[in-house]
Design goal:
The protein has one domain. It is 64% helix and 0% strand. It is built from 5 helices and no strands. The protein is globular, with a radius of gyration of 12 Å. The protein starts with a helix and ends in an 8-residue tail after the last helix.
Length: 89
C-alpha cells in the first residue's frame, strides 16, 4: 500500500503524525488486511517514532504496537522489547 510506504519515508521527520495515521488506519481496518505486504514499512515507521525518544511519540508508538499485537500481528512485538531512550514530558 503506497500510503504506508510514504508514511515510512516521512516518519523520520514526522514520527508522531505518521504513527497517528497508522493508528487510524489500523483501527479502521476490520479485516486486518491494511498492513498486508507493507509490514517492513510499518515497522520502519514505528521504529523511527520509538527512536525519536520524545515522550508522546514513544507512548503513541508503543500503543500502536500493542494494538497490532492485540490484532494478532505478533511480528511487531519485538519492537516493545527494544531499549528506548525517552526525553521530555
Amino acid at each position: 500500500m503506497a500510503v504506508v510506504k510514504l508514511l515510512a519515508e516521512l516518519a523520520v521527520q514526522y514520527p508522531l503524525e505518521c504513527v497517528a495515521y497508522l493508528d487510524l488506519m489500523v483501527q479502521g481496518d476490520r479485516d486486518n488486511w491494511v498492513l498486508v505486504g507493507v509490514e517492513v514499512e510499518t515497522r520502519r515507521a514505528i521504529k523511527a517514532a520509538l527512536d525519536r525518544g520524545q515522550h508522546d511519540t514513544v507512548v503513541d508508538a508503543r500503543r500502536l504496537v500493542e494494538l497490532l499485537i492485540a490484532r494478532v500481528q505478533y511480528g511487531f512485538r519485538n519492537l516493545l522489547s527494544e531499549p528506548t531512550s525517552i526525553t521530555g514530558t
